[in-house]
Specification:
Length: 315
Amino acid sequence: MSLRNEVAGEACVALGADQRRFDAYPTRELHLGELAIRRALPIREHRLVGPWCFLDRFGPLSFSASKPMDVAPHPHIGLQTVSWLLEGEIAHDDSLGSTAVLRPGGVNVMTAGDGIAHAEQTPRDHTGKLNGVQLWTALPDAVRRGAAGFAHVGEVPIVESAGGLARVFAGRLAEARLDQPYFSPLLGADLQVHAGATLTLPLDPAFEHAVLVLQGDAALDGQPLAADTMYYLGCTRSSMDVASRAGARVLVIGGPPFPETILMWWNFVARTPEELAAARADWEARQRFGEVRAYQGARLDAPPLTKVVRPNPVS
Ligand code: MN
């Protein structure tokens, strides 16, 4: 199979020393069943931002009779899925028997380890809204073959300041901490900038960072940020000023440049093509991953391995 998905551990890219304060990468539209999503990561130029190797944006959307999210059981290895909502609900069920309904303010973190399967869907009891993101972290080699797990945090820590607040769903920002259940130094936060205000946040200069506007209008260091665009900020930044005229929500992710080479295919993060092929074969043979018994309906089949040219994760 192709090795084009290989990601070498990268050195820190320092922006800001010249005119270039950040680089812009438009997201691309894809569909997960009926649900339109915009994928921000991976991109060719930055397959990873810290340990973050995947970022999908879905919504905002309103619905009544339909069920916008219905992702049937599918497997994962070598990563964590991190789900975060601005509005709406997602019901999670996995092959460990974990079940949880995610709502705004909380975070679901599923650790795949050597293998897990899960399903994600709009629950029967819902508000008729869906608006959020799903991210993945690549697990470090030392822990990636470990046990699978699932964590639901009902209310993540919040940092408040004059210009707004930051909901920290991964890692550390100012005095907020959500270290468990993560396995790398990292940052994942949803910034809420008040209308007419500027939110100033400290950043770890050893981290590389990226931002994505989720809602409203925002400017970073005085430069307006476009919608549906991921901005890569490089590293060596020790602070960030985000301003808004009418109010905004802005996602910020970061971490030290991931020091390992990874290989991504479908819903798997591994190190060798053989590991990917073995995981695919085990899913097709109904081995290793277990069954998502709470889901009514058929599971997803793995795509043919021969067609691998680009990462194509399900969710
Ligand atoms: Mn998934």
